[in-house]
Amino acid sequence: MSIVTHPPRLALLLLAFPYLLLTAGYSYLIPAWEANDELDHVANIQYEVKHFGKFVPIAYKRWHETHQPPLYYWMGAAWQCTLGIPAFKVSFPPWRAAKPENDKLVFAHKKFNEVQREQARTLHKIRLMAPILGTCTVILCYLLCRTLTFNRLYSGSAALTVGLHPKFLILSAVVTNDTLAILLGSALLFLTVAFVSRRDQDWQACLLLSLGIGFIAGACIITKLNLLPLITLLIPAALLFADYRWVQKGVSLLLVGLAALTVCGHWLMHNYVHYGEWLALRASSERLATILPRTLQPVHGFDIDRFLDFVPSTLFRTFWYNGSFNQLVAPFAFYAVLWFLASLCLGHAFLTQLIGKSTSCDKRLFLVWIAAFAGILAVVLIARQTMQAEGRIAFVSLSAFAVLLTSGSRLYFAQSRAPWLGFLLWPLSMLSFDAYIFMRFVWPHAQF
């Protein structure tokens, strides 16, 4: 088949293959067990390898990620079995890089015994599922932009903005359920945009897209609960904005609900039977209060210190990058420049897309803005209950943020003498930041 006949395939290949190699290399370099809660995520996977298809008890040994929904761990267990790796009891490393010793970080792999050294090699194999999930997210972002009628250049720009995002690059290299949550969030946004894009009121397309949205929504529920704001805001908005007849919208809503329950209903019923709640939120909170008492600190919805100080300052430091495997942060100037550029692009996109008359009729852009808002809302809801407000919580809407940043930069530079800056601004910004992080944090502490 000629390249001219199928240029999207070439574009996807040019995005996917290099990115897969990049994240696989990152995964190899990041020291074992130094990612956010990687020990706990791997422990959940080992439980599923032994008891595949069952649910990890919330009060299970010393681990604190046992309250997480099961889909990622089922996938991780299937991946581990595919690689022929038997279940193992995770040997807790003697140290993880959280404190300096004589102004130098002390890493666990420098103090491993032989068992821990062998488990570290095994971990690097299990990690290889993450680059695949990250690559799928990059591809979905590209397809989302094409559905929004962006040209290939700007679609590639948005996809590279997602792929080269410093924090996402690390998440796509380690064992964490954030990677699957981001992929499913991008898939849900893509399908809802495709649903609203249909103008022919065709029943077959309506039913197929509704089933797809429902299955993805169900998968979101049994992956990570910070996807709930995205589900509850995006699906009703898509039904409202779509050009289908009201009868079709009613049938779509029914199909979405049935498909979602088909995927997650068993887990919801399990929670209700064992913990008395569909989502087991109270049991999860009690477990976290026991094992991580400093983390669980609920406040009321108008707490000034939490929402006007803690949340903004934490998002400022962590949305672009925090070290994951060592919790280091970059210099203030990096974050300040990126937030300044983001404010320009998002502001211009907001004024043009939501207030300007030229694109006010494009309801699909409203969905993208709603998705971005849902990501921030997820951070706020979690911060209300815990001392967690990291930017990665909002990454369930990372593709939406990339679309808005790229479209804002395109609109901002469209009438300038350098319109090419519109599609290069964010990929180059991310790439420059990646280079600093790699040379400052990753390469000096790489585990070989």
Summed up, what is this model?
The chain is mostly helical and 448 residues long. The chain has one domain. Helices cover 65% and strands 1% of the residues.
What are the key terms here?
single chain; 448 residues; mainly alpha; two-stranded antiparallel ribbon; 17 helices; globular; disordered N terminus
Indicate the topology:
Elements: H1 7-29, H2 38-50, H3 71-82, E1 100-101, E2 104-105, H4 114-126, H5 129-147, H6 152-163, H7 166-171, H8 178-197, H9 203-221, H10 228-241, H11 246-275, H12 281-291, H13 304-318, H14 332-355, H15 363-385, H16 398-413, H17 421-442
Antiparallel strand pairs: 1-2
Helix pairs in contact: 1-5, 1-6, 2-3, 5-6, 5-8, 5-16, 6-16, 6-17, 8-9, 8-10, 8-15, 9-11, 10-15, 14-16, 15-16, 16-17
Walk me through this protein's architecture.
The chain has 448 residues and is mainly α. The chain has one domain (7-445). The chain is 65% helix and 1% strand. It contains 17 helices and two strands. The protein has helices at 7-29, 38-50, 71-82, 114-126, 129-147, 152-163, 166-171, 178-197, 203-221, 228-241, 246-275, 281-291, 304-318, 332-355, 363-385, 398-413, 421-442, and strands at 100-101, 104-105. The protein has a two-stranded antiparallel ribbon with strand order 1-2. A hairpin with a 2-residue loop joins strand 1 (100-101) and strand 2. Helix 2 packs across helix 3 and helix 6 crosses helix 16 (398-413). It is globular. It starts with 6 loop residues before the first helix and ends in a 6-residue tail after the last helix.
